[in-house]
Fold these 3 entries.
Entry 1:
Amino acid sequence: MADAEGNIEAKNYGIGIEPERGNFFLKGCSNLDWGVKYRLGRIFNPKSGNTVMLAFDHGYIMGPTSGLERVDLSIVPLLEFADCIMCTRGMLRSSIPAECGKPLALRFSAGSTILTELNDECLAAIEDAIKLDACALAPMVAIGGEFEAKTVKNLARCADFTAKYSIPTLGVTAVGKNLSRDSRYLGLATRVCAENGATFVKTYYCDEGFEKVVAACPVPIVIAGGKKLPEAEALELAYKAISSGARGVDMGRNIFQSECPKAMIQAVRGVVHEGMKPAEAMELYRDIAKN
Ligand code: 5RP
């Protein structure tokens, strides 16, 4: 069971065979409680089946990240274009208008910063997530890292909260300095999150074999954008991820560090919700940016 070497390689992914959805529009979710489905239905658009989540939780490890120096000035004007916001409770309470009406994916674990290695991550209190009406709890999961066990335990604890309070768990796969972002690693990390009770999983796109990562994860996957890319490349990344089966993006830097964040988030929406090709979305970006 615990053999890491010498196993038969996984290969029967059934690529192209859509999983049975049952009575709900997202894969792997038909047996969940009404409250979990209700919250997922606020995060994901039931028409397209996809979501544009705006992530701006970076400060909890990186401090005043470029583009997030003043969240009130840079992020608040983008809220109307996001399907869901992902942030810490500190940033939410200090800078996000309570009347924004956007579902919240609450960054639910905390511990280290970029000044240290990942260490003793802990979870926030579930009562606070309930007070904030969180639509998802988002703990970091560091598969293959020194503190893997601690982070998987945190994920499992969140899944217990999901079962008890019907708040979905978003497993956030962290990629450490020494871990590659290939499909083998991402497939393992996302599957471990799902097996331990994540309702949906955030991970990274990889060019080789991403469709296998999606196929082997029985619950929806959304992708992070990663470091800032030129706008055309970020739109291409979103397009390829959606074409390979991702159900949306949980994107930060490629939106709020863009030359024109308002245009970028709308172009990303074009790809995620309207099936725009990258070139078409880039045209939309340019059109909005020049006005
Ligand atoms: C930071 C995160 C971010 O939310 C995530 O990486 C998405 O942001 P980006 O698109 O900038 O990668 O988890 O800890």
Note: The chain has one domain: 35-232+248-257.
Entry 2:
Amino acid sequence: GFKCGIVGLPNVGKSTLFNALTRTAAAQAANYPFCTIEPNTGEVGVPDPRLDKIATIGKSAQIVPTRITFVDIAGLVRGASKGEGLGNQFLANIREVDAVVHVLRCFQDDDVTHVEGRIDPVADAETVETELMLSDLDSLERRVVAARKKAAGGDRDAKALLPVMEAALACLQAGRPARTLDLSPEDREMLAGLTLLTAKPVLYVCNVDEPSAATGNEYSRAVEAMAKTQGAMAVTISAAIEAEIAQLSDAEEIEFLEGMGLHEPGLDRLIRAGYDLLGLVTYFTVGPKEARAWTITRGTKAPGAAGVIHSDFERGFIRAQTIAYDDYVALGGEAAAKEAGKARDEGKEYVVQDGDILLFRFNA
Ligand code: GDP
């Protein structure tokens, strides 16, 4: 599955957020079950109102959401790239995730120590990013030397890879994270193969004080401005509020949110933003037994989408009956969609669209 790593300096609210995420998911009863894999790893159902709607129309007995994994990666301090604190472990943990959720302290509280002695989320982001860039520089400098030698000796792979490596190196040397490189899709794939920490997509989470949860504050606005210049995303959330919400019943939650001027839990926005960040889309399968959401990377073709369910589906793929979400809902289900000619038969080259309702035909 897809993994988001939660990072940030100490005392910014990472654990509060992670616990709220996992507890809320647990409290969301049967529909969005949560399970703990390791103490610091949690799988969360991706909230999707479309799935509930499809299940109602399809009279499905069960709802199975698609999932995303969050990992609480503690241990970053200044000097991590030189092995300070839990530095090496920290960097290894980041290497394993698909995207980075970077929590920034945007709240003031004299009872909670700030490791740098002041509230400045933009500077904090730079501190963390600098450690990641130093680590990338270190590993890349060594690899570029080796690749140059190989390329000079005629090695084709090294020759192909070298331009991307050189570009990434120049980018890092200029003090910019590798994800800001403007690359062709092929080069982007090569960059991903280098497993650089700063090549991963980043979502900034502005952890604001409770009164600012609906509006944001001067700190979160500064982070949003920074994110814009980096092509990154930012979400404003109050971890303290989310922790409170996690304790409430559904009815209490609605009342509490309205009282705060909020429409939905910040965690729902965070989970969806994480999903977008990873370039993921959802397709659905529906039957009397269950309505289920499945995750694929944007651009996946029908056989690959089938393979998410079972490798046999991909191997023996014949075609996929496809109904667009809007048609399914407007017409009131599969039978009516078929009658109206809105159930298409799609073949191997079909690129699955977000919200498609699919039924696969395959050779067993
Ligand atoms: P971590 O070290 O980044 O995991 O931070 P924690 O989640 O352990 O939080 C550190 C301290 O900050 C704890 O005492 C939290 O209760 C407190 N804290 C976290 N989020 C907020 C918040 O939104 N507002 C306030 N006032 N305190 C918070």
Note: The chain has 14 helices and 13 strands.
Entry 3:
Amino acid sequence: MRITDVRTIVTCPSRNYVLVKIVTSEDGLYGVGDATLNGRELSVATAVEEHLKPLLLGRDPDQIEDVWQMIFRGTYWRGGPVLMTALAGIDLALWDIKGKRAGLPLYSLLGGKTREGALCYTHASGKDMSEVEDNVRKAIAKGFRVVRAQIAVPGCIGTYGVGGAREASNAKWSDGGPLPPEEIWEPSPYLRIIPRLFEHLRTQIGDETELFHDVHERLSPIQAARLAKELEPYHILFLEDPLRPEHKESFRLIRQHSTTPIGMGELFHSKYECLPLITEQLIDYIRCDIGHIGGITEARKIAAIAEPYQVLTAWHGPGDIAPMTHAANVHLDISIPNFGVQEMVFFPDVVHEVMPGCPAYHDGALWVTDAPGLGTDVDENAAAKYPYQRGYLPVVRRTDGSVYDW
Ligand code: KDG
Ligand code: MG
């Protein structure tokens, strides 16, 4: 069996996705992976099409580890978001092929089920406390047992997880396409409102629902330690991504001040970045994006490294990665011993039309079927109806105009 074609499919059913379809010499046997990197989609598509495809043609698709090593180590200039997302797309497609060839779902190849369904969380946000509370209640009514809560920061323009920047920045355009919307953000009002939000939610909703919050890498070490400490009484499941990914040593400071559990990882690109946080037990949840760390091959190693350190997984699962990565998340979740929780989104119908087979939600959990491989696919004719549209994530500035981290 040989790889006979590698097709890069860029499509925009409501937002951009980059898919990698690997075709083999066996009749009708192919795999499809996701190589979407929000806001930099065409860099990844070019990496796959121009640089990696020639290395793959003629190779044995069964040798996933060897292909992975060859792409990661063989380039010399290794790693980073673009190349690791490209590698993830290829890796997922190869695991999909292996599963289809064996006639087995991916979770079976990974060791078989350790649980039925993957406990998952949804997002509840709002412009004020009562709107967030309403949205948490709606999530609970849908069966969610874990909910992420975000609130607009008073005096700021646009808030991560709540929105408002696009409308406020008046959608600037250049060369026929949009430019990044701009948010205005300040740490002081943010640090004041978040503990108040969780006090409100615990008072109104009670203790049973697991609640947590995404900082989105915006705080300094001492600010993060303060927030973690002030959130202690509300027993959140974890505080997500409190610090920038470059500052791993600063997680020690949070630990010294607080027992609030910590989750980190969506901006990591390899197991090496996870190592100090796991081996020093500075975090409780490792939450890499399988689509940005080189795929299933790297994610299962990270999960295995985390297991003896009692760190659980919470793989990133936003709307800007395709259903193939969501499926990979769930296959791993239900086959590893140290699964924690899974982020999920409800995709619009048009995404299901282009990419059928996304894990299904019911009863607070995500479920994959016994279809061979990942269980997902791409309808190339449907994908062609939705051409690429340039899009950017927002840029954040402080009130003095200086650039900050989004
Ligand atoms: O493209 C950026 C998003 O994937 C990210 O902002 C989502 O932080 C995120 C999350 O936790 O879902
Ligand atoms: Mg996040």
Note: The radius of gyration is 21 Å.
